[in-house]
């Protein structure tokens, strides 16, 4: 005998069931982002310190490290659980650890901050001075970490429509952003007599984007694209270095766990794209027209011309040493990255 349920109750039950299936599938698709390569060795219980680990990239890295059996301690401006502060590092040095990763820094593209000398100093010091603190603490540690990974940016390379830049290409001396990258990398250097700690620099997609649904540029741009107003920046022909956050965190893991990896690695995907390609893919995945370009003068006005160059100009950067070091990208192509980030759409739309 059928239970006596009203149409409303049946609809609510069906809606709930549908929502549960949706949430389950959605969570499963996101868990895939945390998957790592099971062939890699695990260093169970080792501690990794992450400077700036409470941010967008740091949070994803912390989850991946914990998933692989590491203990993670964040180095932060504020005290808290599983955290130490920069002042504590300065006063008492590093706690014993297997590795240190430095990815702290005030958000350069914070549109709520004007590009003043004061903000430029904050952007600079939050990367360079903090990195000096970490490098000094590592060099003074009685039991130094095995590996030290410090971030830098591909703004090191001069914007160009012509050149492809790899890790050995020149740069680092032509404007504020490139000088910042040089100073950041210099600050990370350990004294020449250091032989105990392996040093790796990851030049990440600082003039383009680290792609992930939970933060960074995609979160900032999502609503403008969702409303169909996400267009190209300037003429859209500038190169737009990018990397999926899953690949960036896996690259840090690769640097931590492979003893042969040293020196500079470009933390960008192998497919070089323009801002036009990026915009087209973003609009395609959201099924939006993307009619409205963002003219260069408006970006200059909003961000200040010097900073706006990070979006209006770009460089083609290739991860040559990264690939030679044996790293394989899960998302080498921009289409794959967008399909992954917005994979839930595939359950409802086929396109
Ligand atoms: N997201 C991107 O697309 C992208 C692209 C290329 C490069 N990067 C670089 O990668 C690093 C991490 O990026 P993210 O997106 O994870 O950044 P984020 O979300 O802004 O987090 C950065 C972290 O740095 C710390 N921080 C912020 N201001 C600071 C200051 N004035 N002094 C010291 N520490 C400060 C904060 O940690 P506490 O609050 O705990 O102190 C914050 O959680 C940054 O250096 C960024 O420039 C990011």
From TrEMBL:
Residues 48-258 form the NAD-dependent epimerase/dehydratase domain. The keyword Ligase does not apply. Residues 295-340 form the DUF1731 domain. The chain crosses the membrane at residues 6-26. Keywords: Membrane, Transmembrane, Transmembrane helix. Coiled coil: none annotated. It comes from the Eukaryota. CDD domains: SDR_a8. The keyword Transmembrane applies. InterPro entries: DUF1731, Epimerase_deHydtase, NAD(P)-bd_dom_sf, SDR39U1. PANTHER family: EPIMERASE FAMILY PROTEIN SDR39U1, SUGAR NUCLEOTIDE EPIMERASE RELATED. This is Epimerase family protein SDR39U1-like isoform X1. It comes from Branchiostoma floridae (Florida lancelet). The gene is LOC118418001.
